[in-house]
């Protein structure tokens, strides 16, 4: 039997980094094949080689038994390879139809193509409107645009890079239906993920990578979730749980917060109420793009909020800058590491100064004490096990996991009474994610409060005692986890009635 | 195949090597330009870059030209770090000169030690206010400061012309568009007797060191750096973006205004229409050549001043036009920007045979 | 009075043409996500090149071709530095302007005291002689019509062709465009060259049609005004014409103002086009404040480097 695609000993390195080291595997026609691995295991590089964005240093590929070495995405697409990117390759200022045409070769925008788009979206149950501007679409709708764009090329192999990480549970179910339909029509699917449950649900074949090397080709349904996780990570993961939860009095509250977004594509916040108690971990779940960014900006103090809508330790903090809020012992870790939580081209020591309450003694009368800054940076690097060549290494030279550990450590070292953290482990390897979760639990155990905004439902459920859901700028009441909690959260994430 | 690869860490070696390479490439290109213009390359090269350093007079003139360049470039470098592009320092320089001189001419009958400081103060305020227009429009209406400062430069030069043709014209000057000559207490003290090197040079060097410490030790220096590199991170740190814009433009405008009145009361000694000689624009090159480093600006200003003096002697010796200086300066900046790629990236040569 | 009216309208058109050329070229460049601040430098190089060729060969077409090539060559420096050597676009654009002013002055010193034959208007016998309408519609030089044609072509390219769509996509998100296989650097490089060609014609128009002489620095900020025009036009080609006519109008009215008996020093009147630019930018921002996110190409001025 001929394989759809066969990889033999494919290697690729970037300078000193070996991204892929002699990877071999084969995909059968009409199968759903999983590519599993941690962040940084080499999945993306491998996929880019198949899609023609990168050329391998060594090794070969075969397509239906014939040599296959695309030098650019056009060549790969011509053969029938299509790809849905993790960070969508869409253009916000253009319409859905324009976006789709851009991904197709030798096609211009006309009525024929628009009716074709409508036909495909109907056939696979992917509802999109060709005339809408992409910037106005939800994340789920954007993914549908990407998928339709791929389907219109009549692909023989569809690559999907982390497709479910931004979807609600309902959207995930719909996506799986579409994928099944496709596979039944003979299109092979290469499914990249680190979510083991869903992989075991829809894939019969899996290739597991770790640190750029092939660990195993196997059938994921014949292994337990823990076994696969161990192969991916290389060691056992310790389960974590909070044991002695002691809640004190209310320390922070959001009171009837409404705010118009100043961004064209933003979300308006509507009458948000929330109460956070000492020693608690509170979670705000929800799909990205439902007002998380807007809320985070207001919490940090980057955007204005109406008077007395934010109270911390009994004080109205709406007129305080982020620096003044930190003086009151309120600290933040934003979602975006490079460019928001850290300056990419500046050293860790300089980045340390982004969060500098007077108690840290890093500045005195606005004069910087560089010695103290370096001491503290060293302290963070040691305590939180940040892998970096030096304390003055540029933030952008660190891996995502290490930079996140640095950013969390930078705030934790100030002993915050309230820590507000968005997507604590987004794009972070499992080991670092575990460290970060443990640190958050330790902080709450010491009597401080943590507010987590995350779209990773597993994370919220494993850490938080109190869960709210943000949907289209509105925040639900706290969900009672005892009675069908998960089901309710799923409903709320899709905009179900707030009870 | 050659491709660029991002370095994990900026190369320290290249930080020093790249300006050197840029200089060599510029020198080489200058030879080519001379050759095309039919001029003896080695001779012209000597006249341009070596001769000014051998005579005491040319050397002192180089210092005279370096003073305003250092001052203006220092101010501009603050804004450039913050991503605030004040391209109209020339205009602020002119307005500073006109305002300061107007005060000096108003007190034409009066002598006093206080006159020069007063003129300087007025020049600083005038330069600040003029640059402040751009700051106001950017912070209030998001109008691009590059265009505003530039348009205001043309306006300032026309204003100077209107002034020396009108209210500030020398009443006994046979209708020449010039002001009266400043008297002693409105003229800058000379710090090197027998030359035109004035106290402005000392002020410039002191400002360079002040600005060095300010940028590296004071939290505002960090604020400016962060705002330029990552505006969202600046907000995260609690820095007000508008404050950064105001600060950048006020500082650069004030310093340019001061440089303007120094030029009028120093080397020129009166207000003339040809006062705007392009220092405001050349200072942009000076700032970039120094990679916005305050101490580096002293040296790059001296280098650029050298090309001015060299250009003047080349004009006399080889009948080359003055514009050779701006060609040379433009090329230097081109090469310099291009060579800086070596700091952030490295060239990788791959010999990969496809199977 | 009619004669004066016709003269003013003609004057305004002539004053607008160089702005239309340069701004339309820059508009395409900015739509691809590149900010080239060197328009002034490219214009003046076009002006001197066109003038020198016209002086020696007295052939309007040849002079224009030379101005186009000159504009493109100097734009190529910018394209090479910003696209291949990944330099800062603001700094490189400024360097380009300084360099262009220097080169043109250096080259033009021998031509400062000569004149050339003006490139003439097309005269359509019969029609051109009609009162008012005749001179208004039929007495423009061919470049005037070409400038309008170029605006239409650029509009058509951007909005009706696949390549135009790709160019807009690159300006919106160069990483995404690269990911799906479009050649970001190639498109931008060509766009920059086109911008150079257009600035070159705009410059040549100044030294061949407006005033057929060479004066050092004769562009006098028109390159910068063109940059402002692109913002004014909110990156829409047809609005460039409107903007150019406003600026051309101010320039001409200011020249005629003293004739109308306005008793103000010439210097203050000369300030008007520059002050007008600022005024327009401000009123424009007040009007479209909420819309700016959408009209400005998102990648404008950002450096693109395809790593992995």
Helix percent of chain A reads 25-40%
If strands are numbered along the chain, what order do they take across the biggest sheet of chain A? 6-7-8-3-9-10
Main sheet specs of chain C: none
The major β-sheet of chain A equals: 6 strands, mixed
CATH fold assignment of the largest domain in chain A: Rossmann fold
Helix/strand/pairing category of chain A: alpha/beta
How many E-type strands of chain A?
A: 22
Q: What's the level 1 CATH class of chain C?
A: Mainly Alpha
Distance between the termini of chain A: 56 Å
Dominant shape of chain C: globular
User: Would you state the CATH class of the largest domain in chain A?
Assistant: Alpha Beta
How many domain units of chain A? 2
- Average pLDDT rating of chain A: 87
Q: What does this protein look like?
A:
The complex is a heterotrimer of chains A (499), B (355) and C (308). Chain A has 16 helices and 22 strands. With 499 residues, chain A is α/β, with parallel strands linked by helices. A two-stranded antiparallel ribbon of chain B has the order 1-2. The mean pLDDT of chain B is 87. Chain B has a domain at 66-298. Chain B is mainly alpha-helical. Chain B is globular, with a radius of gyration of 22 Å. Chain B contains 14 helices and two strands. Chain C has one domain (8-289): Orthogonal Bundle (ABC transporter involved in vitamin B12 uptake, BtuC). The radius of gyration of chain C is 20 Å and the shape is globular. The relative contact order of chain C is 0.20. Chains in contact: A-B, A-C, B-C. The interface between B and C is large, with 49 and 47 residues.
